[in-house]
Amino acid sequence: MHKFTRIALLYCTIIAIILSVAIADEEISLKDLSFTPSVYIVLPETVNSYENGGKLKVVATGKHVKSYRVSLSWEGNRLVQELNGEQFESIFEFEPTHKAMELSVVGFTEENFSGNSTEVMRQVISPKQEIILKMIDLAFKNSKEKQYKFAPAEEDHQIGVCKNFVMRLFDTFSKDYRMSEYPDLVLHMPKNKSLIDSKPYQYGLEWRDESAEDGSPFEIAGQFKYDRDLSKEENFKKAYELMLKIQKGDFFQMVGDYGGGNGPHSLYFIEDYDAATDNLHFTDSNMFGKRIDGVRWGYMQYDAVRTGNWFATVFNMRDRGATIYRLRDDLIKP
């Protein structure tokens, strides 16, 4: 037998003897081992706010967990619930808020909230964030549906019309939300200003003048109207600066020459303005279309991309311009 092999065998024998003596003195079991618990938040999902009426269902599970301490915090408020068991499931109740909330789930290896612990955090998004995500998700689903991908857009009531498209995105979900300042008012999106009320500018640059007191949860986040007292270049600078303000969830109303049409157009931005690329991502209907038997049909776009420079060029024209409409921050789910 090789000398090295003999030494290795001798070493292993010595180790085995030592271990057998130790086991004889004290029995070793899995119960003596110290585990680190793992915790998983099942509900709420990351795309959801609380439920209507100020309720939040929380479900959490984990490994090596025998008790939970769960807290929900927002704007100086904190609710705490504790539960023994391998799974946590309960409902938090509170006054509806427009704020995002912070959910903390701590899992313990022993009952009565002792032993080793692990904490997992999740943000519960605000109602405003939720409705924005819902509208984006609906637009994505519509982009896969035949009836919306290419739709009639000749008459004011038809689903392919650009303003009808963005209004439907909002109207689909608006019934579940209110403004905290006016909790009794049903929300709605204003229609475009009339041709007469739009003068001296062209129709389609802005919506009707409706405020929160009228049930409109939208605010003007920025506006450009071509100024005849300035040069074309000076106007372009102001038009371009408007596009830098775009945020995810903004509605956009403009009058311009955008290739597939020359006049008013409505769309919905699905991402913040990207300063690195100058890109803007949006969804709309009827920016492009064609006539069939004399009737206008419009194509729906999802995640269409144009630059801020492109947009500014489109509506930087005499008697034209654009307006950004943004949801108020104080949306709640009563």
Question: Would you give an account of this structure?
Answer:
The protein contains 7 helices and 16 strands. It is an alpha+beta fold and 334 residues long. It has 2 domains: 94 residues, Immunoglobulin-like, CATH 2.60.40.1940; 205 residues. Strand 6 and strand 7 form a beta hairpin. The chain is elongated, with a radius of gyration of 30 Å. The termini are far apart. About 4% of the residues have low confidence.
Percentage of helical residues?
A: 10-25%
Termini, distance in Å? 84 Å
Rounded radius of gyration (Å): 30 Å
Count up the helices. 7
**Domains, number:** 2
Poorly predicted runs are: 21-32
Mean pLDDT: 92
Assembly state of the chains shown: single chain
Largest sheet: 7 strands, antiparallel
Defining key terms:
single chain, 334 residues, alpha+beta, Immunoglobulin-like, 2 domains, seven-stranded antiparallel sheet, four-stranded antiparallel sheet, 7 helices, 37% strand
Topology:
Blueprint: H1 3-25, E1 38-43, E2 55-63, E3 67-74, E4 77-84, E5 87-93, E6 101-110, E7 114-124, H2 127-142, H3 146-149, E8 150-152, H4 162-174, E9 178-179, H5 195-198, E10 218-225, H6 232-243, E11 251-257, E12 262-269, E13 279-292, E14 295-307, H7 308-315, E15 321-327, E16 331-332
Antiparallel strand pairs: 1-2, 2-5, 3-4, 3-6, 6-7, 8-14, 9-16, 10-15, 11-12, 11-15, 12-13, 13-14
Helix pairs in contact: 2-4, 6-7
